[in-house]
Amino acid sequence: MLGYHHFLSSQLSDGMKAHLMGYIRQGLSLAQVMAHHKTYVKEKALQNEHVTCDTFILHSNVKNLAKKRADKLWQKHSKEPITIKMWVMENFEPTFYYVEHALMDFNYTSQDDMLFILRIQTLWQLE
Length: 127
What we know:
The chain has helices spanning 4-8, 14-25, 30-46, 59-74, 80-90, 123-126; strands spanning 95-100, 116-120. By secondary structure, the chain is mainly alpha-helical. It folds into 2 domains: 4-73; 76-126, no CATH class. Strands 1-2 form a two-stranded antiparallel sheet. Helix 2 (14-25) crosses helix 4 (59-74). The protein is elongated, with a radius of gyration of 20 Å.
């Protein structure tokens, strides 16, 4: 017997995690993600599809996915300039402009306090 607690602490499928991460990447708030999921579940119900663990997502599921994404995006290195450079290399699409000031000054020796300029442009800003 699995028990009531096990039923409530369901694991999301990889497909549902990817689906929710798409909303999180778009920059939707927790309430907006939950509203989209509610619409998604209603569509599935109208089609008489099976109820799965993915039907019962919680706010905490979305929060955890958003936190994992934030950790993955920002916690690259103990030094901020190196973290930013690594993030720019992995996320080139939203990067509008990036310059390291150390590249302009050949006498610059330390990366600990290296200055940089980073400009980001999201998809909704282009619309």
